[in-house]
Predict the 3D structure of the following.
Amino acid sequence: MPATAVEAEGLVKTFGSTRALDGVDLLIPDGTVLGLLGPNGAGKTTCVRILSTLLRPDSGRATVAGVDVLADPDGVRRRIGLSGQFAAVDENLTGFENLYMVARLYGMSRASSRSRARQLLSRFRLEEAAERPAKGYSGGMRRRLDLAGALVAEPPVVVLDEPTTGLDPRGRLDTWEVIGELVTDGASVLLTTQYLEEADRLADTIAVLDRGGVIARGSSDELKAKVGGERLELVIEDPIHLPDAMRVLAGIGSGEPSLDEQAQRVGVLVDGGAKSLVEALRRLDLESVMVVDVRLHRPTLDDVFLALTGHAAEIPAVQSSEGAGE
Ligand SMILES: Nc1ncnc2c1ncn2[C@@H]1O[C@H](COP(=O)(O)OP(=O)(O)OP(=O)(O)O)[C@@H](O)[C@H]1O
Ligand SMILES: [Mg+2]
């Protein structure tokens, strides 16, 4: 077993005038999960495609499970399981057939292919749909089948590109559980996500990718500590007072205040804890701005993202309907 699951140095990739990756370094020690976190277009899938040998970098080098992606792409493919945004599911085959086929392709016997397929179908709650063609599956079921396909050969390195996008909360929890089990069984995982909560929960190390570059890395706690302080959030009764509230918070906080117009919520990072909260309420009261809800909490990864990029996380809220797909 190599000491590092993934090692990438200086990955650059351009598409026409778009610099999708601008010198990305990544390191995943064996048996750990790296969360590659970033908004749409940050370069996550480009990284995944390079590491899984589907795309050649313009420059830079990478090894996966100790094998060089450029020198021995077949060797890399034998050692990774990939579940991506472009699902490898065959629409005309049933769920069972899809997994059975993959197992056979990996050279497993008929009997072990059958039992591995059944085992994965049950693990991903697809038993009832097992004999139906995948084209009738919902978006969420398809994603679960695709993920199951990546795990057929029990690869030492698993690469998951937004594994829970389009899943309902139950599907998301199932997937998180499976990823946890993979790591317990000794696998290493590269996981891309737009969901801060997902990175927070699953990743040993997080690399924040923005516009083709890694702008921060560390554990979730380390990233939060970088931001420091606490976050004060207020819900304002009348939306007409949001500008006043923003002005008050700008005078109290240690950074730029943020605004969620729909939720009538304003927020800012503060250094003074409860004192800052009391001061904010006092000033708002002087301006006759009614506050209906108040929260003071440790920074979340959302705050980290905001602080790092200077722009609010253009990161969607967790979707609640299965089958929404991409
Ligand atoms: N085959 C391609 N041809 C042209 N441009 C591309 C291609 N693939 C990616 N890009 C561009 O490279 C940039 C990074 O894309 P990438 O798909 O890696 O982002 P991402 O982080 O995976 O985004 P998303 O969250 O939407 O999946 C984007 O600007 C994208 O438009
Ligand atoms: Mg992508």
About this structure: Residues 44-45, 85, 161 surround magnesium ion (ligand 2) (CB under 6 Å). The longest helix spans residues 169-184. Residues 315-326 have pLDDT under 50 and may be disordered. The two ends are 36 Å apart (CA to CA).
